[in-house]
Amino acid sequence: MTQPRLSRRQVMKGAAGAAMSVSLAQLIAACGLPGSRDTGWTAGTDWNAWWRDQQKNGSFNFASWPLYIDTDGGKHPSLDKFTKETGIDVTYSPVIQDNASFFSQISPVLQNGQSIGYDLIVISNGWQLTQLMQNKWLIPLDHSRMPNFRKYAGTVATDLAYDPHLTYCAVWQAGVTAIAYDEKQVDGPIDSLDALFDPKYKGKVGMLSDPDELGTAGLLALGINPQTSTYADWQKSADLLTRQRDEGIVRQYYDNSYIKALEDGDLAISQAYSGDVFQAQNSGYPNLKFVIPKQGGVIWRDNMVIPYHAENPVDAIEWINFAYNPEIAALIADWVNYICPVPAAKPIIANQLDDPTVANSPLVFPSEAELSRLKEYPVTETLKTHEQWVGLFDPIIQS
Amino acid sequence: MKSRIGPYLQSAPAMLWLALFFIVPLLAIVSISLMTGNSIDGYTLTWNFSVFPDALDQYSAQLGRSFLYGGISTLLALIAMYPVAYWIAFHGGRRKSIFLFLLLLPFLVSFIIRILTWQFILSDEGIVLGTLKDLGILGENAHILSTPVAVITGLTYDALPWMALPIYVALEKIDRDLVEAAGDLYASGYQQFRRIILPLSAPGIYAGILLVGIANIGDYLSAQILGGPSTTMIGNIIQTQYVQNGDYPVASALSLMLMLALLLCVFVYARVFGTRTIQEYA
Amino acid sequence: MAGKGISADGARPVRRFPWTRFVLPSYVFVVMAYTLVPIAVMILYTFNKAPNQRLTFSWHGFTTEWYSKLFEVQDLTQALWHSLEVAVISSIIATALGTPAAIALARRRFRGRGAIDLVVVTNLTAPTVVVGASLLGFFIALSVPRGLVTILIAHVAFNIAIVIIVVQARVSGFDESLEEAAADLGAPPWITFWKVTMPLILPGIFSAFLLSFALSIDDYIITSFVAGQTLTFPLWVAGAVKVGIPPQVFVMGTLIFVSGVLIALASLILQRWGDHGETVRT
Prior knowledge:
heterotrimer, A: alpha/beta, D-Maltodextrin-Binding Protein, domain 2, 2 domains, 10-stranded mixed β-sheet, 18 helices, 11 strands, about 15% strand, B: mainly alpha, MetI-like fold
């Protein structure tokens, strides 16, 4: 520890002395970093009264994911329609690339009790959303302002294990994590997760670098229902996945870039998200197939939530309502090709938008029977369980 | 102009900035590394020194790998660039600055784009592998991306101009008369090189090794974009622990250990050649 | 010391280093070509008709579409502006703060000079991942919100060291008798500074500014720690790797490259013109 002492001595000698000692003192006095506990709204807030006091401001900031809204020549028709009909301008920023890093960007701001600059964000169910809810960093939705939601939302949007009373979350899109493969590189159709562990595809298998996705795939492959799984199950899954890695079967742990690897032929088979594969099939890669294996797939939901301290909540909630208008939901679903939370959008896509491929796709409008084959993620409600989970699967990815 | 406090006044603003935004932050992570806690309850300073051996134990593979990849790429860059720098310095003639300019062109391309283009070049069906596969030299399943080879290729490429520049400067400084004299004394070409040119260019070589080595050992973008399972470097760990997982103490401890290890190299260098030479060649 | 390679009659060896004629130049040519491959790839693929507005390595036909649609990806354009903004402002601040310090360090001997040298060298050689992580730790500890300002602070910090070194090299190389002459002729110190010193060191200041600018616009690792929600060009590109990179990224890279080449060529010519005959050094 001689290095810091040395620098400190130099620093004290230098002209910097005065300013330095102030910040040093501040640092040493702090002797710690604040946590997020009790940094959200106080329990007992009367949200009905709060919503009554809010006013429409004529604009709002919307943070979402790249390639996740209908786009036409650099414009977003659904947002333009919204502006035309309501007079509310939308600043749309596709800045979210994964939940964890986005959360790490906004959490210090929320912890300081400041606005993050966005009035609406799209975030997947998982540990980060759980934390946003537990820290009271989200504003409860005023359902009286969302009549379209009550009227048109399908079970995908109303049956949420992580937010049973729909207090905070309005589903933007949902999707399935299952497997995709390149017809040209495998022999015959694939219908089982076992293919991901098949030495035949050594070096040609892609797994996802999100620990939730990775660990859940292991559980499913072992025939365990993720939602009711225990720590012992998680360990078994971690063992299986470690073996898969050590045998050289996994080429890489991918973020969304797995789809490019599939398109380029770098992968024969991979864990995959439904919408990505659908988009790829329709843009020159019909050789890519998406299957929900016999062990089942996992359903995830990306939710629109209003962060605490948002400056334009009324405008934001008006958009939520607007997005549940079947015509608008159709516009969006027809472009992003994920599971649409509004079943009534199906005939609109088939007829008005004249796109039966999307309308009839079970990956966009799955039947109840198909939905029932989908599993939920393991629940990590507390920091301890979360750390257990991450402690098992992170070392596999980051080895 | 020649007052006693003059130089202090002149250097004060710059030093203040460096003190506040370089040295104090280093002290801050010393204190953070000794804290315990979690993101919800916050972290408190508990003088938890065991974080150092624990982190070392947990991430020894990644730490070792960083030094391995950093070392190999530095060595490759040295082997590739020494002859080039030598040729430009001694045989470049009047077009010296043009050659030098060509050599430094990669600097003008964004770091991240440089790495991305390697993803293109090394792609399974790309220019290199596609051709080799068509010729039947490589099997259908052969791949370079996602392997250590790809990461080291990226690191090495990035290092080339950084390595060439200080070596060139050192070679350029060598007194031509000295080389001539050796020739007159019937030293063979090899001997001229061994006995005069190589020793005199040593400070440049070491400066190159230092610059490139440190940058590559701490790099994480090459591993992130070109690597695969089991190519994770210590930079990747520090980045994910800090930015994504919010595990500040472990990330701070790793940063400090990396910093200390590399500082040691710098100090050894400074002892041998003096700090001024680092500046000169940097 | 007689070597083996001397001709028997004891005359000067007729042809020393025969290999420098063919082997070495061809080697240099190969290495040079190698360093230019990624640049060529970048430029080539700006003309690829990429389907779904994303870069793929397979060739779909020639187009100049992406040049005309350069600013169509709004957030990418914004990220580029952020980068330019940060690069300009941070280079100006760093040059303004670093230049006086460099003059003091080059011209004066004073107590603490060694310590300042040490800080500058450490700053220059510290692994970027550690610099980034420690700044983030510092900002977190002080609850400073991350954004454009913190990026700027970080960039100024690493640019100051660069400026100090580049300007210092220039200042130590010039003739102080010129200043003395001016003083003897009765010029007040500030006139001497502006009329004599300044013009002499201006090229050094200019190249320091350019170098800071280039390093700042290129920085990924340090920025990735302190950026918060603000995205710069390299950060945006690194993020876009996950979903596919729009061809505009390579177009921007190409334009940055071309303007870099032009600026470098211009300053090379200017410098040649300025100090005739002297070897040009970066």
